[in-house]
Amino acid sequence: MSRQDHIREFAANALTEKRVDYFIGWKQGYNSSEMIPAFVTDPAEADQLVWNPLCHHNLVTFIKRNMPEPADAKVGLCVKGCDSRTLVALLQEGLVDKDRLYVVGVPCDGIVDRRKLEKMFSSEITEIEFPERGKVKVTTRAGETKELDQKDVELIGCAHCRYPNPLYSDNTAGPLEKEPDREETKPDWSALEQYESLSDDVKQALLEKIYATCIRCFACIHVCPVCVCWDKCVNRSRQPELVSQKVGPKENLLFQMVHMFHVAGRCPSCGACDRACPVEIPLGLLHAKMNKEIYDMFGFEPGVKLDEKPVFQVFDLKDQFGD
Amino acid sequence: MAEATNNQASGAATTGAAPGGAGAPDRPVKVVGIVCNWCSYAGADTAGVGRFKQPANLRLIRVPCTGRIDPLFALKAFEKGADGVLISGCHPGDCHYSEGNYYARRKFELAERMIHHLGIPPERFKWTWVSASEGQRWQKVVTEFVAGVQKLGPREGKAL
């Protein structure tokens, strides 16, 4: 039984037993190369749910604020390893109600970076198939077909994933994936090395170029599962005004720094912001850098243990910062 | 801010004009200081009352506690054109509200690292502790920090 069948079965059962009012999973979009989030309310519709390496959406986003209407609805959802860390981060702070959730954990062996794929072909991608585990078969509108290794077209974070299995779930869809030895291997931040080796002036010039393209569409903030202020976002606030309405690299970078600082200690670098950005600003790297420093400072990985508090909400008298 | 006025003349004389790089504007640097009401602001006052000479490039912002200081205040100051940002509060253990600075130091440490990540040199951002009685320490901290910023000259960064 494939993971997809497990998900369908769990969803159908939960809906039939009225354990949940609706179930959030993934389904096929307008063609077989694009998956989109699916909201299933009828057990008969559970067959539309899918699971494949294109299901990149972090569904925790949909429950991050008050549970969707009606307010007392019970929600089922699928989480991958990285998604489960965002869920744990929300649970750590009591931002979602555990009792109204039914979580199906989906062990994951890597998600395909669709943007990376698109850049490899001159024609539009019409179909992406997965003939066997670890292989990706792409068909374009021009009729070109190519088989690739999944490892070559994965998201940046997947190559060194430390948590392929969900850390919090009520049921697991199929057998667990092989986990790396987390005691032995430290988190990998080699993607940052190139940027970190640059001089200050070059960094500034590069940031100016990158952040000039930001259109402040708020996609990164809307899609972020752990960016949770319900009432007022300081990025939108005009009184007090932290981020100016003026548009320029400075303001845009400040806008992103607001997001980054506000999710510090809660963001496990799931990469949702990175994938949502329409102008392809490498937000994942900014958040990875933040997590690298947090790990360096506290040895803390966000969203791993349910009984842990995020590092910026607690303190330790023995902290050795400052002079 | 009595201490700033007291030292205006001497401060301007000691700092002088910016050396700067090629094309850098020729002006004294502007440094924003964010200080807590109970220790560092009082420490600055002690320095003023004691007539300790210190640079006049510093503009102080008084906040109730370092725990109130959002790292984004520093970034906002850089965005608005500050050449340097100095944050100071009570020594750990001396917080007027018991534990504000214990939270604050965690935040500032991350802020400092992220500010360097943005290509702003370490000399332009400093956070430290100065108590109400440490007028001389305040003088030393400010003089050294401003001298460091002055050496780099005014900022013309286009990205924050």
Structural class of chain B: alpha/beta
Order of helices and strands of chain B: HHEHEHEHEH
The strand order across the widest sheet of chain B is 2-1-3-4
Structural class of chain A: alpha/beta
**Helix proportion of chain B:** 40-55%
The assigned CATH architecture of chain B is: 3-Layer(aba) Sandwich
Q: Tell me the β content of chain A.
A: 5-15%
Strand fraction band of chain B?
A: 5-15%
User: How many helices of chain A?
Assistant: 9
DSSP summary, beta strand count of chain B: 4
Number of DSSP E strands of chain A: 9
Q: Distance N terminus to C terminus of chain B?
A: 28 Å
Compact summary:
Chain A is an alpha/beta fold and 323 residues long.
Keywords:
heterodimer; A: 323 residues; alpha/beta; six-stranded mixed beta sheet; three-stranded antiparallel beta sheet; 9 helices; 28% helix; globular; B: 160 residues; Rossmann fold; 6 helices
Structural write-up:
The complex is a heterodimer of chains A (323) and B (160). Chain A is of the alpha/beta class. Among the domains of chain A are: 112-153; 190-313, no CATH class. Chain A is 28% helix and 13% strand. In chain A, the strands form two sheets. In chain A, strands 1, 2, 3, 4, 5 and 9 form a six-stranded mixed sheet that branches. A three-stranded antiparallel sheet of chain A has the order 6-7-8, with no helix packed on it. In chain A, helix 5 crosses helix 7 (249-262). The longest helix of chain A has 16 residues, at 283-298. Chain A starts with a helix and ends in a 25-residue tail after the last helix. The mean pLDDT of chain A is 92. Chain B is α/β, with parallel strands linked by helices and 160 residues long. Chain B has six helices and four strands; from the N terminus they run H-H-E-H-E-H-E-H-E-H. In chain B, helix 3 packs across helix 6 (135-152). The longest helix of chain B has 18 residues, at 100-117. Chain B starts with a helix and ends in an 8-residue tail after the last helix. A four-stranded parallel sheet of chain B has the order 2-1-3-4, sandwiched between helices. Chain B has a single domain (2-13, 30-152), classed as Rossmann fold. At the A-B interface, helix 5, helix 7 and helix 9 of A face helix 4, helix 5 and strand 4 of B.
